[in-house]
């Protein structure tokens, strides 16, 4: 099956709690539901948005946490990646922004339906847990990025 090519620019969000753990989502590609993975919150920049504005919007839409644009730090990492998801073949520029969230309450209430259908759970991860897990985590170097943020201060 030929995939639809899609080029996009994304803001990836790294919500960090008081223990220095990052909030990740767990889910799957609807074309391959048997392959589960952990991933960062975030998504494509919409017309007229800055990356930080997209980060704030995605944080609310995906996990129900409201934050002001000025609360984000970064980008702490940037990458160009290619991957397939559903019927699409993505080429994606991604920029990773961090935000301190304290004791945040997570909610999937504002997700789009396809996100609700393919996101199974959330979890807070320490750098040590990210380094030692056998589960698939995107991006693979997330523990290094997280350490850079938490050890480098806010």
UniProtKB/TrEMBL annotation:
<protein>
    <submittedName>
        <fullName>NUDIX hydrolase</fullName>
    </submittedName>
</protein>
<keyword id="KW-0378">Hydrolase</keyword>
<dbReference type="InterPro" id="IPR020476">
    <property type="entry name" value="Nudix_hydrolase"/>
</dbReference>
<feature type="domain" description="Nudix hydrolase">
    <location>
        <begin position="6"/>
        <end position="148"/>
    </location>
</feature>
<dbReference type="InterPro" id="IPR015797">
    <property type="entry name" value="NUDIX_hydrolase-like_dom_sf"/>
</dbReference>
<dbReference type="GO" id="GO:0016787">
    <property type="term" value="F:hydrolase activity"/>
</dbReference>
<comment type="similarity">
    <text>Belongs to the Nudix hydrolase family.</text>
</comment>
<dbReference type="InterPro" id="IPR020084">
    <property type="entry name" value="NUDIX_hydrolase_CS"/>
</dbReference>
<dbReference type="InterPro" id="IPR000086">
    <property type="entry name" value="NUDIX_hydrolase_dom"/>
</dbReference>
<dbReference type="Pfam" id="PF00293">
    <property type="entry name" value="NUDIX"/>
</dbReference>
<keyword id="KW-0460">Magnesium</keyword>
